[in-house]
Amino acid sequence: MKLMRSEILYFALRNNKLRVGLTIILFFLVLTFVGPMLTHYDPYDYVNPNGAQPPSSEYWFGTTMFGQDVFTQFIHGLKATFLVGVVGGGLGTLIGILVGFTAGYRGGIFDEILNMLTNVVLVIPTLAILLIIAAYLEVRGILTESIFIGCTAWPWAARAIRAQTFSLRSREFVDLARLSGMKPRKIIFTEIAPNMMSYLLLVFILQFGGAVLAAATLDFIGLGPTNAISLGLMMNYAVLWGALLLGMWWWFIPPGVAITAIVGALYVANVGLDEVFNPKLREM
Amino acid sequence: MRKSVFSLMSLFVVLSLVLAACAPAATPTPEVIKETVEVPVEVTVEVPVEVTPEVVAYERSETLYVSGAAWGPPSDWNPFITWSKANTTGTIGLVYETLFMYDPLTDELIPWLAESGEWTDANTYDLKLREGITWSDGQPLTAADVVFTFELGQKYAALWFSPTWNYLDSVTAIGDYDVQFNFTDPLYQEWASNLYNIPIVPKHLWEGRTEEEVTAGANENPVGSGAYLYESHAEDRNVWVRNEDWWATSLLGLKPAPKRIVDMRFASNNVALGAVIKGEVDLSNNFLPGIATLSEKGYVQTYFAEAPYMLSANTAVLFLNTTKPPMDDPDFRRAVAFAINTGDIVNVAYANLVKAADPTGLLPSLAKYVDQAVVDELGFSYDPDEAKAILAAAGYVDVDGDGFVEAPDGSKIELEVTCPFGWTDWMEAIKVIANSAQDAGINIQDKTPDYGAWDTALTTGTFDMTLNNWAGMSNTPWTLYNLLFNHPIRDVMGSGNFGRYDNQQMFDLVDQLAATPSTDEAGMKAICSQIQELMLTEMPVIPLWYNGLWAQYSNAVWTNWPSEAENIPSRLPCTWSGYWQMGGLLTLTELEPVPPSE
Amino acid sequence: MRRYFGRKLLIYILTFFLAVTIDWLIPRFMPGNPVQTMLSRAALRAEAVEVMYGYYTRAFGLDVPIWQQYLNFWNALFHGDLGTSVYMFPQPVTKVIMRAVPYDIFLLLPAILLSWYAGNHFGAFAARTKWLDNTILPVGYILTATPYMWLGILLAWVFGIVLGVFPIAGAYSFALRPHLSWTFIRSVLHHWFLPFASLFLVMFGGWAIGMRNMIIYELEADYSHYLEALGAPRRLVRKYAFRNAILPQITGLALQLGVIAAGALVTEVVFSYPGIGYLILAAIQNQDYFLIQGCFLFIIIGVLLANFAIDIAYVIVDPRTRLGMTGEAA
Predict the structure, then answer these.
(1) Radius of gyration in angstroms for the set of CA atoms belonging to chain A, rounded to a whole number
(2) pLDDT average per 10 residues of sequence, chain B (598 residues)
(3) How far is B258 from chain A (nearest CA, A)?
(4) Which of B197, B208, B238, B351 is the most exposed place for a label (fewest CB within 10 A)?
C-alpha cells in the first residue's frame, strides 16, 4: 500500500481527473490573488452612474443595479470563498480528526460519549446555533462564518475517521507498537495518522467543498457576513433585486458558476487523488 | 439486494404514513357527520341542507389578484389585533368597516358607516349613523354596535385605542342611529384619525366574548358589514368573496367589480416580481426594483407614468441619538443633515422610485402645513461645503489628519448608521449616507444588524443613527410629530422619539397640536410652523426621502386603475392594512373588467 | 438483538433530550424581545404599548423565572403543546407546523428516496463503463457541487420565466381551493415539480458519484478478483460489489439528512413552497421563539427517526452488524 513519493507524483501528474480539478482550482486561486490588481474599485462602490449594464470592456462582468462593478465583487467574493474553505474545511477536518481518532482508538466509553456528541451535533439544526451567534455579534464577518461552519460540519468526518482508525487499530504494526509500551497518543500520531495521511487529505478536500456550499447557503438566506462581500451574498443581492427577472444575468451567473466550478473541481480532484493513492482504482 | 432496497423503502413508507396521520385532515367535515350518527333516521334527510356547493376554482375574469400587503400567513381575522393585520389585510376595510373613510389625496373625511359627525361643542361629538346598514348575517348595524365597540376600549386596556378613554368620558346611544361622545380636553387630531381607524364590530356576536377572545382571539369566519366576506385561506393566500348584500350597493350605488380578491403572499419580492411579469398579479403593492424597466416594457402601469412612478406613503427619517456626543450638539446634527447626499439615495439606491423629502418631513398630502418661510430660512439640502463650514464654526476640526473631524474636546468621532439586515433598499441608502458623510469629514460607517438586534438598539436607545419610517399617511401632521417627538422619555421607547430628544418646548407644542380641533386649520398651521422652526434649528431628526406607496398594476384583466391622468379616478391604489379605508376600497369599486378579446 | 436496539434506543433518547434542551436554550439566548418587536410594529400610543407588553409577556409565559420556563416547556411538550406563535399570533405552533409538514413529506421523501435509488443504480452502472464514466459522471460532479438555491433559481428562471411552463411559487394554483379533483392534483404536481427537481438533481449527482467510487473499490477488492478468477460471470461479481458498496451509502444517507434539511430550506424559500423550511426563515426573521423552537424540534425528531430507520435498515442489509451485536461492543 505504501508508495514511493516519486511514484505518487508520477501518477498524480498522469491522472486526468486530478489535472483537470487542480487546473480549475489553480485558475480561480490565481484570479483571487491577481484579480485585485486588475480592478481599482471597492466591491460596494457605485462606479457606474448608469446603473445596471451588461459586460463591457470597461466593466468586464457588467454592473449591478446600483452601478457596482460585478467583477470587483466577484474577485473579493472568491477570496471569501477560499477563506471559508480553508478555515471552515480545515477546522471541520481538525475536529473530525480529534474526535474520530479518539473514539476509534480508545473505544469503549470514549467512543460512546463522542458518538453521542456527534449525534447531537448531527441532529441539531446548525442554523439555530448560528442565530444566537448572529444575534450576539450583531455584525458578522467571514471568519466568524468559517469558524461556525467548521464547528458544525465535522460529524461525518469524525465518523469516517473513526471507522478507518478502527480498521487500522487491529493491524499488526499497531499491535506491535502497543506491545512495545508506546503511549496511545503517540501511537495515534506516529503509527496510525501517517498511514491515514492520504485519507485525511481526501476528507479535508470534501470538507473544503462542503464549507463553501454551506457558506453559500447561509449567505443566501441572509445569515452570512454582514460586513463583507462573498459569492453567496452576490447571489443573495442579485435575487433580492430581481436580477434574473430583469435580465441582469451577468450579476447572477458568475458567482454561481464559480462556486459550482470550485466545488466540482475539488470533488473531481478528490477522486483523482484517491486513484493516485490507491493504485487499484486507477483507470484500466 | 433488490429485496433490501424495497424493505428500506417500505420502512420509509410506514414512516411517512405515521407522519401523515399526525397531520390534520384537509377538509373539515365532521360536524355534519356527527349529527347523522346521533339523530334518528327520519331526520338525516335534513342534514345536508346547509351544504352549499363550494367554489373550488376561481374564474380569472372575476378575480382580482393582489400581493404585497401580507407580511405573513393569515393567522387571525380579529380587527383588534393590530400588528397581524398586515397578514390579513382587509379585515379592516373589506370585512369590518369604519365610521368614516379618509382620502389623503383630497384631505377629506368621507362619511361611511356614519352619515355625518360633528363637534357640537368643544367636548361633545355627535354622530349620525346611516340607516339601512346590515351585518353580513342580516342583523342591522345600529348605534348600540358603535357604543359597544368604543366601550370595549374602556374595558380592555390591551386594545390599541384604549388610551382614547383618557379623554373620552362616555359614549351614549340616542335612539337607533345617533351616538353622542362626551369628552374632557379631547385630542381632536387623534380623534379624527380614530374615526377612520376604529373598526365597528357587531355587538350581538361579540358581547359574550371573554377578554382573551376579544383582544387575542383568531375570530375565524368573521361577520362584518363590509363589501367582502371571508372565504378561505392557506399559508400563502387569503381569499375574500364579494358580499352581494353589501349596504353601500343600495345606499350609495357602489359595487366593487371583482367577485373575488385573492391576496397572495410571496416570500420575497423576487417571486412577486416574477408573478407580476407573468401577469399573475393584478395589483402588486410590493417594493419592486426595476419598475422603470418594467414600465417601459409595458408589463406594468403605475400611478405616475414617469419618475417617481409612485405616490409617497411615508417619510424615511434619520434618527440621531441625542443622548450620545457629539449628537447632543445641534450644530453637529445640522452638519450631518447638510452632509447627506439625498440625491444619491434617490437616484442610485432607489433608481428614482422615490422623492427626496421636504426638510420638514411632512408628506406631500400634508404640504399645506409646511411653513415655506421657515423652510427657506432654515431648511437643509446636500451641501458638503456648508456641512464643513458648520463643523468648523462649531469647533469640529480634523486634528490628527486622518480626514475626519474630531470633537471640539479633541475626542475622536466614530459613528454608525444602521438599518436591519435584509432591508435591501435601506441597506443601499445607509451606504450612501455613510459615504457622503465621510466625504464631508464625518466618520460614519454603515452597519446592518439583524432585525431583532436593530429593534432592541432602536427602542432602548443604544444606536448612533438609524432609519425609521413608522408614521404613515394620515389626516394630520400630528401623526408624524407623534413619532418624531413621542414623550415622555422612558426606558424603552417603543413607538417613537428613538433618539430620545428631550425638549419640553417641543413636547408642549406637539401636545398643543394634538388638542387643536381638526377644523381649525389656521391654528394647526401656526403650531406646525413653530414645531418646524424648532425642529430645523435643533435638527434632532433628519427627514430624507419619501418611501413610495408601491403599487404596480396590470391592465390584462382589470382596467381603470388610479392614475394622475385626467378622467381617471385619483385614489390610493393600495391594499396595505389601513389603506383600504384611505382609497383602497373605492379603487375596487371603480375597476372595470377587460372585455374578453374576440 | 434486543440488547442492541435497547442500547441504541437509550442513546437516541439521550440525544433527543440534549438536542431539545439546546433547542430550547437557543431562542432564549437571542437578544431582542419578541413581544417588544411584535408591538413595536403596531406603532401605538406609548400607554397602550406598556399595558399590552405586560399582557402578552404573561400570555407567552415569559414572566416566570427561566428554570420554570424550562420545566413548563417539557411539561407542555409532553402534552403536545409547543406554545403560541408570536409571528402568527394567536395560532398554536403545533397547528402551524402540522399544516406545513405534509408539504415537506411530499417534497422530501420522493426527492431523497428516488435520488438515492436512482443515483446508486446509475453510479453502479456507470462505474467502469468508460463512455458513461467520461460523459455523464462529470455532470454528476457539477450537479453535486451546485448550491441548492442556485440550481433552484436557474430552474425557476428557465422553466418558470423564460419558457413559462412551470409556476414559480406556491404549492398549488392561486385560483384553486384544495379539493379532490384532477385539476387540483394536476396543479399540485405542477407546483411540486421544480422544487422536487432541484432537490433531486443535486442529490442524484452526489449519490451517483459516491456509488461509482464505492463500486470501483469493491470491484478491485480481493474477493472480486478471486470470484473473477474462479470464472464467475461479471454480472455476479458486480452484484456482490453493489451489495457491499450500498452499505456506506446507507450510512451516508443518515449523515446527509442534516444537509438535506438545509437544502430543502433554501429550495422552499426559492419556490415559496409552504413547508417547514419556509416557516423557519419567517420565524427567524420575525424572532418567533416558539415557532423556531417548534420547527427545529420537528427537524430533530425527523432526523432522529430517519436515523433510527436507517439503523434498522442497516441491520437488515448487513448481516455482519447482526453478528457484531452479540459480540464485542464495537
Answers:
(1) 22
(2) 38 38 34 36 38 72 88 84 70 94 91 94 94 94 96 89 92 95 93 93 94 86 94 89 94 94 83 83 87 81 89 94 93 96 89 91 93 94 94 92 91 91 83 92 87 82 92 89 90 87 95 91 95 96 94 91 84 89 92 81
(3) 29
(4) B208
CB nearest A222 (choices: B294, B422, B428): B422
Neighboring chain A residues of B344 at a CB cutoff of 8 Å: 46
Beta strands in B165-293 (DSSP E): 168-174, 178-183, 228-234, 237-242, 260-264, 283-284
Q: What is the model's pTM? A: 0.82
Question: Cell for B144?
Answer: 348600540
Would you call C23 and A128 a contact, using CB atoms and an 8 Å cutoff?
A: yes
Same-domain status, C298 and C213: yes
For helices C276-285 and C93-126, give the axis angle rounded to 10 degrees. Answer: 130
Distance CA C168, CA B199 (A): 37
Contacts of A225 (CB under 8 A, 6+ apart): A80, A140, A141, A142, A144, A145, A219, A233
Cell numbers at residue B225, please? 358589514
In CATH, what number is assigned to the domain containing residue A82? 1.10.3720.10
Spell out where B348-461 has E strands.
355-356, 415-418, 444-447
Residues of A in contact with B450 (CB under 8 A): 134-135, 138
Is A127 in Cβ contact with C262 (below 8 Å)?
Answer: yes
The CA–CA distances, whole Å, from C36 to B319, B330, B434 equal 19, 30, 29
B233 has which bridge partners? B238
Q: Which three cell numbers stand for residue B195?
A: 374615526
Query: Using CB atoms, which chains have 3+ pairs under 8 A with A?
Result: B, C
A40 falls within a domain: no
Render pLDDT for C206-246 as a digit per residue (tens, 0 to 9). Answer: 888 888 888 887 887 778 888 888 888 878 888 888 888 88
> B312-548 maps to which CATH number?
3.10.105.10
Nine cell digits for residue B46:
335534513
- C112 and C159 in a single domain? The answer is yes
Distance of CA B288 to the CA centre of its chain: 17
Q: In whole angstroms, what is the distance from residue B71 CA to residue B5 CA? A: 44
> Which of B102, B338, B326, B263 minimizes the C-alpha distance to B198?
B102
Does the residue C325 lie in any domain? no
Pick the CATH number of B2-94+226-310+550-593 from 3.30.420.40, 3.90.1280.10, 3.40.190.10, 3.40.50.300: 3.40.190.10
| Window 166-205 of B, Cβ < 8 Å to C | 166
Please report the ipTM that was assigned to this predicted complex. 0.81
Give how far Cα A248 sits from Cα of A251, C100, C173, C291, Å: 6, 34, 28, 36
